[in-house]
Design goal:
CATH architecture of chain B: Orthogonal Bundle
CATH superfamily of chain B: MetI-like
CATH superfamily of chain A: P-loop containing nucleotide triphosphate hydrolases
Strand content of chain A: 25-35%
Shape of chain B: flat
Number of domains of chain A: 1
Structural class of chain B: mainly alpha
CATH class of chain B: Mainly Alpha
Number of strands of chain B: 0
Order of helices and strands of chain B: HHHHHHHHHHH
CATH class of chain A: Alpha Beta
Number of domains of chain B: 1
Number of strands of chain A: 10
Order of helices and strands of chain A: EEEHEEHEHHHEHEHEEHH
Largest interface: A-B, 27 and 21 residues
Radius of gyration of chain A: 19 Å
Oligomer: heterodimer
CATH architecture of chain A: 3-Layer(aba) Sandwich
Distance between the termini of chain B: 53 Å
CATH topology of chain A: Rossmann fold
Largest sheet of chain B: none
Radius of gyration of chain B: 20 Å
Strand order of the largest sheet of chain A: 6-7-8-3-9-10
Distance between the termini of chain A: 48 Å
Largest sheet of chain A: 6 strands, mixed
CATH topology of chain B: MetI-like fold
Amino acid sequence: MTEFVMEAKNVYKSYNIKGEKKGETKLVEAAKDVSLQIRKGDIKLIFGPSGSGKSTFLRCMAMLDKPDKGQIYLGDECLTEPGVDLNKARARIGFVFQHIYLFRHLTALGNVELALRQVLKLPKEEARKRALEALTEVKICDCANKYPSQLSGGQAQRVGIARAIARNPDIILLDEPTSALDPELTGEVIDTLRDLAREGTTMLIVSHEMPFAKEVAEEMIFYDEGKIVETGPPSLFFNAPNTDRAKQFMTRIINKTTR
Amino acid sequence: MDVWQQLIFLLEGVPLTLSISILSFLAGIAIGLPLAFLRVYEKEISFVVDGYEKLFRGIPEIVLMLLFYFGLGPFFPVPFGNAFFVAAFVLGIRSGANQSQIYRGAIRGVGDEQMIAGVSVGLSKWRAIWYIMVPQVFTFSTPGLGSEYALLIKDSAYVYVIGGLAEIMTLSLRLKSIPPYDVVTPFVLAAIIYIALTFPIAFLLDRWGNKRKKKIGL
């Protein structure tokens, strides 16, 4: 039995994007030999400049993108091994998207209910009950019958979180859950995440919400150019990071939030 | 026969015209929807789908009907000896090729993100397609589906070539050849009936689509 809920071992992922000139392609290395372990109840926060590859790495963790090299473990199961039932594995991983991606044709309740019915195969009443519980947990039960187009960004993202937690996954991966929202709406989503943290939910979060990080994260991971540059508790980053690159980044981001 | 009698005579063809068109429309959904998803999500066999589309969009349906009815009918009387079956079958496989293209555009419109979100909650690819993509794909397809339906109503007129089916076109040709040998009125009446059959349903389909689009915020 491994002690880790989830583990990435030497993950490498690259992809091609269109270059500046016509017909030219540019290789982007989103993850170069990245390793990461998460224990039960851990809250880890990945941050770093945009384009550094952290979102791609997070998608690799959920196997929404396939790593080119390296292994991803969910408990004892190696997800990068051929022949693994990835659908079953993904049912145990909650994923929250930056741009939310609610199912547009379903109500808030329908969004949460779908996986309970079709993946966990719960009977109708039980699925409904658990979906409503998840919506209550993110304090959005009164919007259960609204469609995504009728929700504010903050409400929609809370439904997104409810969709991810309703299955009681082993871990929740959150990809910049607040960065696509209007500034005045990020608070309600942060409050929801804070509640989850208090309940001991295991989370790996890509985010730049620094006050929140300071409050809940056990470990912060500074990610740049496809690599983990520095790892440590929030106090390290807020006082004196070891690397210059992290120092620069922290100065810039703290100035931005206090401005 | 006066105009009213002629009109009543032609109206008797409406149920057959409608049933040929609606059946072939449904067959077109059953063929076109899987083809469109195969084309988008199973890149290795997309050439099969392309071939199917090119073949059945390229041959006039009148030629296909004659081929299946007179060419295959004698050898396979079941099902190709049945004029009604051949009519719905030919229009259905052609419509499948058209609808495949309509749905393919709609799949792009719905966007890959919806698919990724579906897979992220643990649904398999084909379950995500069924529960998340298909309902939205129909919404995105509505203007195109309305014209496809209209096309099928019109093209059902071609079945007069295989004879024996008393639909609107066949009946108007029959009217032409009985006293008073009027060669204009039957076709004017047929034109009016065809318009009456296409317009309201295409309109309703569009309205349904727009309503749904509003609901899902497009």
